[in-house]
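S., here's the first fold you wanted:
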Amino acid sequence: MPDSPGVPAPPPGRRDEPLQRLLFGGVYGTVLASGLAAALDHNNGRPDPGYDAVWVLVTALASAAAHGYAHAIAHRTAGEATVTAGTARSVLTEWPLLAAVLPTVAALLGAYAGWWGESGAINVALTINTVALFGWGLWAARVAGRRWPAACRAGGVDVLLGLFIVAANVLSK
């Protein structure tokens, strides 16, 4: 019995935690997008925010596929004849990671459309992503049953990830 004292509960199923997957993918994708945006630097040529937007999206797709595939491989059992359908499902459950990079892609596409320069797009993306990290941390803490003050502290800790990337971006230029 999993609820008996001293008997550990069985681990969650392969992908039985949709809200946790959403929160994980959101934070991971936001940090990934922030790091990619901060790494954009065209000192040796003309900025091309459209090209950069495509590469942020391609990198997110590759990351989501690799993460989903790694989960499928990690949970593979010796008795499974085929894992193709399970692997595909595992990869598809990584959609929150892709959704989390869309604000960065949108900011870069705004620069491509001429709404602002690429540097402005990066600043917009980093600002949006830092605010999003607060939201992800707050939401995750509330889902875990934390009260508002503790949830705000958790969001504040997640903001530190965004601020770390912003600081690294400033220091590297």
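And the second, which I think is the more interesting of the pair:
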Amino acid sequence: MAKPGDTLVLFLLIGVILYFIIRQIPLSGAKWGKKEEEPVQIKGEVPDLLRAHGFEVMHSKERVPLVFGVDDAVYESRVFIDYIARREDELYVVVVARDRKPLRMSGAGLRDFFLPYYLLVQPDGILYVDKEKKTVKVVHLEIPELTFSKKSRRKWPLYATAVVLLLFIIWLVQ
């Protein structure tokens, strides 16, 4: 049985639901009720160097928190990303060279240095910027897709099925 306030509550619920649905619909590139933010020009020696090499700097000094659980213990750490840059439709993580953490130009050295950044962000490339030498090195990483499937060592059911099918075909032909 309907009570006098039930209709009002129903319309209020429908209105709230419609409000949240409409907030999610983009209108000419911006969401309703939110102002479009103007891009902030990031200043500094490294962003200027990146711009000179044709990159657009999007973010600076990103801190990515990490939490590791080992058995019952919890360990926290973080990874710092110096900059995020873009060129055309490609996204790059920017790592600035540091004296206390030099880059070893070997397969293992490059793996140990750049793999965490690649696994975190999965960018199109990583830019290694040396402010002293004013160089920008583009690092690309190719990781093959790995499939871990349990291979069956028992092939006799396949062979038995093939023999039975062959015998059946011979029987049909005669």
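Why I say that: The chain has a mean pLDDT of 80. The CA atoms of residues 20 and 72 lie 40 Å apart.

Talk tomorrow,
H.
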